[in-house]
TrEMBL record:
UniProt keyword Transmembrane helix, yes or no: yes
Listed NCBIfam families: sigpep_I_arch (TIGR02228)
Its EC number(s): 3.4.21.89
Species assigned in the record: Pseudonocardia lutea
Protein name: Signal peptidase I
Annotated TM spans: 30-56, 160-183
Alphabetical list of InterPro entries matching this protein: Peptidase_S26 (IPR019533), Peptidase_S26B (IPR001733)
């Protein structure tokens, strides 16, 4: 005598096995969590240094020199917002174009206001400098006032926007994809 199964019994067993929850592999859970946190951190940093300033008409710059340390350490991102120069007061940190009278060259500088002259013009000084800047800053040369800064992100941002940085970022994405493909989707059933 052979064993006979009814078609209905096989269908029910197949349906039961198909609907039984499968357990996600623990390593996949950990990798998903870590990847999610990294993406969240990258998006939050991008918002802090690009989206938020743009929403108020401001911009962000990487700090390249130590003239404003410890307030603005080298490698930080200084986030600036527009300012009405009539509202500037001593103690504000201004971003402005500094023009060298002798050479005619200009550079972008972020220093603290120490005095306001008629015009208005602003006497500025880097926090780490011993003396005031040599020439007052004209109101027309002011780009904005420091709103906030994000430490350590400037160096990373400057490296990532170049060709080598884009290659490294692409490599990291491919590595994350390879890890996702190598880790089993479901844990083995016992």
């Amino acid at each position: 005598m052979g064993t006979h199964t009814r078609t209905g019994d096989v269908d029910r067993e197949t349906a039961r096995l198909a609907t039984r929850p499968r357990h996600v592999h623990p390593l996949r859970r950990v990798l998903t969590l870590v990847f999610g946190l990294v993406v969240l951190a990258v998006v939050a940093l991008a918002a802090l240094v690009a989206l938020v300033p743009a929403a108020v008409g401001g911009h962000s710059l990487s700090v390249l020199s130590g003239s404003m340390e410890p307030t603005l350490p080298v490698g930080s991102v200084a986030v600036l917002k527009p300012v009405d120069t009539a509202q500037v007061k001593p103690g504000d940190v201004l971003n402005f174009t500094d023009r060298d009278a002798a050479t005619g060259q200009s550079r972008i500088v972020t220093h603290r206001v120490v005095e306001i002259l008629p015009g208005p013009e602003f006497v500025t000084k880097g926090d780490a400098n011993r003396t005031n800047d040599p020439q007052p800053v004209a109101a027309a040369d002011v780009h904005g006032v420091l709103w906030y800064d994000v430490p350590y992100v400037g160096g990373l941002r400057d490296r990532l926007v170049g060709p080598a940085g884009l290659a490294i970022a692409g490599g990291l994405v491919l590595l994350a994809l390879a890890l996702a493909l190598l880790v089993p989707t479901h844990a083995k059933e016992r």
